[in-house]
Design goal:
The model has no long low-confidence stretch (mean pLDDT 93). The chain has helices at 3-6, 38-50, 57-64, 68-74, 120-133, 148-156, 166-186, and strands at residues 9-14, 30-33, 75-79, 85-94, 102-110, 139-144, 160-161. The chain contains seven helices and seven strands.
């Protein structure tokens, strides 16, 4: 079975913040935190990136609640030269994962017309810093095997496959093989 094509859900984790890659934005882009009304921008970005009509402000509220002070501490927006939000990522919290107290990377997305410009790197640098500032010693995220470019980026940022079962280990071996074969074909 082709694990990548089957699109299995996977979890990645980073157990510490040592060695986070440092990337900065070029001057025509900026980062800012959530402001009131940004739920609509979040929906627009995620719909553009993922094409899912199920992405609504109601989903935003289910994922993040409506505490705007908390959102202003945790949710980042990447903006273009006009100040328009084009990307997002959230340094959320999760007390249910493993033994609790984990940070959780949520809703990382970039509008398609801005993809391929390495804009996610400075966004993730800032997100990792934010986790540390908020007191999270570690973080995890969920994605799927079909999102190899995202997995590759998270891997560069020190996130590793989370294995709880032999099935997980099998999936991560297949993902690593795919990542390695891609690296070798582009070398």
């Amino acid at each position: 079975m082709n694990v990548i094509a089957a699109n299995f859900p996977v979890i990645m984790r980073r157990d510490h913040w040592d060695g986070v890659p440092e990337y900065s934005l070029s001057p025509e882009y900026s980062l800012r935190f959530y402001r009131p009304g940004d739920a609509a921008r979040w929906v627009e970005i995620l719909r553009a990136a993922y094409g899912d009509d199920g992405i609504t402000e109601r989903l935003f509220e289910r994922r993040f609640g409506n505490d705007e002070d908390e959102l202003a501490r945790r949710q980042l927006f990447l903006c273009d030269s006009t100040g328009t939000a084009i990307g997002t990522a959230t340094a959320w919290k999760d007390d249910a994962f493993e033994d609790g107290g984990w940070g959780r990377v949520r809703a990382v997305a970039l509008r398609p017309e801005f993809q391929g410009r390495q804009l996610m790197r400075p966004l993730l640098t800032t997100l990792c810093r934010r986790f540390r500032e908020l007191g999270h010693e570690r973080a995890f995220l969920d994605t799927s095997t079909k999102r190899l470019p995202a997995i590759r980026l998270y891997w560069r940022f020190g996130f590793r496959g989370h294995c709880q079962t032999e099935t997980d280990a099998h999936i991560w071996r297949a993902v690593a093989e795919s990542l390695n074969s891609h690296e070798n074909s582009t070398a």
